[in-house]
């Protein structure tokens, strides 16, 4: 049975800060942002956009009535869940009007969560032929104003419909995972911002890739020359290159050129959105496919490196399906990015520092000037979140 990604889409809030503007305001050479880490713009969510609303906004455009009746599993991978008990998936299940006899769960392991969801979905479809699964990655990356990690923040969500006979990507069966309990990046329950050991995190990322790749290559007999592209978890656009370049040293010039040119295509969306944690690997896939100018074709092999600090990593692979390009949403993606609101520094800092109410009572929320999204967080009443739809 062939199982994989049948439909996919991403969402990002329609407010952002230009990183040249931010660098100049912070008294930093803009090249440190735009060249050093390779970022141009950073999504900034209003208080009315959270894990639930972004996930639902990502999924809505790709689901029709048939899908809603066949989705029996909803998995949300996130490290910025909105409740310590109730899953984001339960909220999203209701917002999307998926039939009642579906299971809805949230998965957490830093930026690896959505990949865990994807593998769960693949196994589920294997034992439930004819049914479908919805995998969503939704996160808001926060390190604080004027911090060393400020420039690698971002927000967004990815939605993937997983089914038999997929129309975009067929997942291959062999994958290799690795777990090691380390503290390269973590966020205790009592803080809204992450704690990062940047140098160690970069080293761990590269080590995980090289170690897992060696084992993956043994199990599959694949070499890098067999791949037409390799997509990476991208907390910022240059991160994957730190792992890929050493692995390419002994490959031919043609292989190096092919993989590096496709790597560059896979970073376009990240450069303009920032770090979306669990969704960043799949954002890189959409960036690659949307940006490609006919160098990829059906049957081409694509590799994937998923990494979640703390740490879990996985390498897996998939093949593009015939006419996959007819099922991409590249124009809608470009329109979404082109029609965002460019925040001033004052607007950015005001939006960033707003906090949700934490007391009893009814608290309406409004960011109508900025937030034009279909689903949005409209109020909190006695600690319960309520969402609305724009008509």
UniProtKB/TrEMBL annotation:
It is an enzyme of class 2 (transferase). It holds the Pfam family HMG_CoA_synt_C. One of its GO terms (molecular function) is hydroxymethylglutaryl-CoA synthase activity. InterPro entries: HMG_CoA_synt_C_dom (IPR013746), HMG_CoA_synth_N (IPR013528), HMG_CoA_synthase_prok (IPR011554), Thiolase-like (IPR016039). Residues 3-164 form the Hydroxymethylglutaryl-coenzyme A synthase N-terminal domain. Coiled coil: none annotated. It comes from the Bacteria. Signal peptide: none annotated. The keyword Nucleus does not apply. Residues 173-253, 264-388 form the Hydroxymethylglutaryl-coenzyme A synthase C-terminal domain. The keyword Acyltransferase applies. Keywords: Acyltransferase, Transferase. Its EC number is 2.3.3.10. Belongs to the thiolase-like superfamily. HMG-CoA synthase family. This is Hydroxymethylglutaryl-CoA synthase. It comes from Candidatus Vagococcus giribetii.
